[in-house]
Specification:
flat, single chain
Length: about 90
């Protein structure tokens, strides 16, 4: 009896890699207009220019600043209320 549950293991199979064509070979068989084509990166900018302003960022900064100021004022108000209530008792 075999250790694999009665089934014989399959014989190993060798798979050969296909030949990979080189870039030079592809250019030889390509259409002439495709070989001479150039692509310009100046026509389509991929990022914002430094002088452009992203206004939602400034809204976020303003909101964070207002939240920090509000939190400071609430904490100071609570501290004053605690000091006033303990002084009057």
């Amino acid at each position: 009896m075999l250790a694999t549950g009665g089934v014989a293991p399959a014989a190993p199979t060798t798979v050969e890699d296909d030949a990979t064509p080189l870039a030079e070979a592809a250019e030889e068989t390509a259409a002439p207009e495709a070989v001479a084509e150039t692509i310009s990166d100046d026509g389509t900018p991929l990022a914002r220019t430094p002088e452009s302003c992203y206004f939602p960022y400034w809204i976020w900064v303003l909101g964070a600043a207002l939240t920090a100021i509000y939190g400071f004022l609430v904490a100071r108000s609570r501290k004053n209320d605690d000091a006033n209530s303990s002084a009057s008792a």
